[in-house]
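Need tokens for this chain, all 824 residues.
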Amino acid sequence: MAAEEVDPAKLEIADELIAERNNFTPGETPDDMTPWQRPITAAIDILNNWVGRIICLLMIPLIAVVVIEVFSRNTFSIMANNGWGDLARALGLGPTVFAYDISRMVAGVLFMAAAGYGLMRGVHIRADFLYRNWSDKTQATVDAVLYLALFLPSMALFTWISAKFFMVAYLTGETAFDSTWSPALWPARIAMPIGGALLFLQGFPELFRAFHKMGKERERVFLWGTAAVLVVIALEMWVPGILPIFEWVTALFEPGGFFDMPKPVIGLIMLGTMIFVIFIGFPISFTLIFLAFGFGIWGLNFKLTGLLMTLNTNSTMLSDQLMAVPLFILMGIVMEAAGLMERLFSSIQMIMSRVRGSLYIAVLIVSTIFAAATGIVGASVTILGIMAGATMSRSGYNVRLSAGAITAGGTLGILIPPSIMLIVMGPVLDVSTLDLFRGAFVPGALLASLYLIYTLGRCWLNPELGPILAEADQPKTSNNYRLEVILICIGVLAICRVFGLALGGAFGFIPFGGLIVLLAALLISYRAYKNLTVLRIVTPIVIGVQIIYSLSQLMAVDGVEFGLFYQIAWLIFLGFGTYKAVGLYSTTTAKNFHFSDLWNEFFAGLMPPTILISFALGSILMGFATPAEAAAMGAFGSILLSLAYGKFKIASFFDSLIKALEITVLIMFLVAASNFFGAEFSMLGTPKMMTEVLLGLDMSPYMILIIIMALIFVLGWPLEWVPIVLIVLPVLLPTVMALDLPGFESQYDKMVWFGILVAVNLQTAWLSPPVALSAYFLKGVVPNWDLKDIYLGMMQFMVIQLIGLVLLFSFPQLVLWLPRIMGG
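Here are the structure tokens for all 824 residues:
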């Protein structure tokens, strides 16, 4: 199917990567499918469907174990710091010995055991750039050949080798060596052969569906050809030497034979074959596994290849960093299902109703908050389109600028933490996910600010692009509405500053000082919001304290850096706020002053995502929790918020678990397959050879880096971020590490900076027609917008993205400032 012919109705908003999943009911088979194939297909589909429905429930104990650990450890720390350590020990509080191992094992079982379910549901990612343009019969024939030649043999080998790996752990009583608890490993490792066997079985229904799709005549020819090949293989195995075929093939690989090549060259052929097979549309995970097996045996040997497969799969299953993937995904899906963002959008729209381009402001603010609460691009673009598309059309907003703002704002989820991409990228770059999160905040804020400046600047030059809402649609406010906005901004940011100081232990001189001061600040703010007399007393105190604090911070800044500009901008705003707030003390201004009712709606919409962002991401950035622990707390918090708002239902929550499982299988199985492929590729020595060639070119290091970034940008058109991060990035990484770039204190800093550059680059590629799925998500919910206009709107913001990328490339401190400040 051509890019322009994508059916938006078939797009699944839970995640852009699995937009064309299978939509049949497990157990259903076409009436005209070959009779003997129907019961086999139905039985295997039902088996894997039940496995998936059971496995997804493991997310509940996964959340529970981590939440117990976080609560017990931090409660003990708070009590011990305030002299109540003995009581905390008596209550059994403190770090647990079991949470670390149980949580990572459960997370590993989640994706491994459900891999067959993922194939049945069609969630394993394809790069069908060429495949979708073929006829149905050609697609089916290619699928059948690849399932027979690649999938079934590789899954059989995977199952056999992983079963031996499991048996060694079971018979020897092998335990984890990297934890205090040191549990037995076989309960987790058994998921590898089980997952492999279920994948192997699911290959037959996929093969039979391909037979059905190609038609009876071609199926008959295909089956006879397959039978002939199997007879030849059986004869050669049972009666060695009866046919010379295997001898001829073996001779080609012996020293002096046609395929006797240097290992780095074999790696290059492996890379080229991978690109070819991926682009003809076969699921990438299985392509990588088969090629790693085949080329590993050719260039190395069978024993080493099997060892690399088991070790890399096992390390992916037991990764404590990647454990955050299913939990952050669940958090975002529950937030989306609860519909907690519509209220915030409506209130911001009303607050900004007297400003040109108010809907652009609402879209970009909500998209930034939603990005920090979910990290799922498909959901963000779709929900923003539903909330804003019709209103923008009705209000006379420019379609191109509107489409660009929605799609660009929606893509912030790929960059702003808790970005799933950054979680996956951390182990690839061998840097802390925490530092990638910290490094992404300023770039995320920079891009959101550039979007706002561009849209508002366009509206200022041409008011028709974003007209002010009609007088009848504007909410009732006080006569000093601008003062309302200023006081609310100062109050909210003051509470945020108190929260940050509390997390940093600034009030630790009294027991539970941080919590007490924060609650007191919230109470005083509420009273000031409700009572004009209290507001008059509190306002000068709050502004004065913040001016003094900002001046002290400004004097502490050493040199020209991001913090300098932040403090100067904040002081200018406080000065303007002081000027406007003086009117509170005059009878004329204060007589009719009150906070409008729309602020109640604003805070009701703002609180849910703010609570999640503060406690999930705040704990990560301040170093109080690992990303995985914060993800569990965020998922738990989203469930509590859904309950509090009356949106929680068992059926919808189970659907959220299923969706989260499908996306987790997609990402994590591909991580495991990519690690296996990358290990083989590295062992062949090809990355080293490519690095030497690139560094030997007569170019500056920055020019080589620009070429690498351009390559990633171009690959972002036909490929999703998952294969680029997991396959392309490891190939390019040795070259980047070898580049002599001045201005970095360490190799680690350079990798953090490079990781954020790649993230922004891939976000830019999201806005690049003709393949960008965000256009189809938006078209699906705003069908009256022409796809051409959506494309032209996206391309405007793609240029802004490139400007942001150039700024980050030119000024690495924009990325490294926050990691250095918060990391000491």
